[in-house]
């Protein structure tokens, strides 16, 4: 099935307009504007403390800008009803906290709350959404376990399952592969790609691994010091010069043999830059 047939996420738009963001009087993001392409996967990368997680929090309405605005379908997200936002936009923050003693199935089921109305009860559709999310993230066998008894990697997959069960047209994830081994990192990113291709879900991810970000992104956003240094398709913007500017790291950029996307090869102080043929 071609992606254009089910581009439901493309019905909604999300953008930041000249936002200023910070904590405790310290400004982290200064006058930044960004459009999240509808129906695409956007990866946001940059060094620690550059403002990428702060930006994602503001776009999920978890942090109000000191000036500027975040627009969901052209409306200020801060002025929209919470339930209306939650029915369109899902967020997996960097360090979510589960209630004490809650089981995996109950936590994942909470992703269905935005779909519940005053007179709507739990339905077979909710059961199906939860079961599919548990299966997709490989935690179905953990359904009856308390979340606080799980390993860090297991817990992270449960949180991802909760975000998936919400079935929103826009999904924001902050470092979703934290605590996961490389196999499960690929599983999660493949799963997000499947969601995007099958349903047209608009996805924005803050990711630490630059090579994986290049491999999975339709659009890459590189940030430094609270500003956007470059944005566009990875093959169009990623160069050794860009990586050095953003991360302060010498590198060589080659072609990823698995995907044809840019692959960054770091060069440490004790290594010599390969001689080009």
From TrEMBL:
Give the classification, highest ranks.
Bacteria, Bacillati, Actinomycetota, Actinomycetes, Kitasatosporales
What residue intervals traverse the membrane?
none
Q: What is this protein called?
A: Iron-dicitrate ABC transporter ATP-binding protein
Check the record and name the InterPro entries matching this protein: AAA+_ATPase (IPR003593), ABC_transporter-like_ATP-bd (IPR003439), ABC_transporter-like_CS (IPR017871), P-loop_NTPase (IPR027417), Siderophore_ABC-ATPase (IPR051535)
Any matching Pfam family: ABC_tran
| Organism field | Streptomyces scopuliridis RB72
What Gene3D superfamilies does UniProt report for this protein, alphabetically? Answer: P-loop containing nucleotide triphosphate hydrolases
**SMART domains attached here?**
AAA
| GO molecular function terms noted in the UniProt entry | ATP binding; ATP hydrolysis activity
Question: Is the keyword Nucleotide-binding in the record?
Answer: yes
Q: Print the keywords alphabetically.
A: ATP-binding, Cell membrane, Ion transport, Iron, Iron transport, Membrane, Nucleotide-binding, Transport
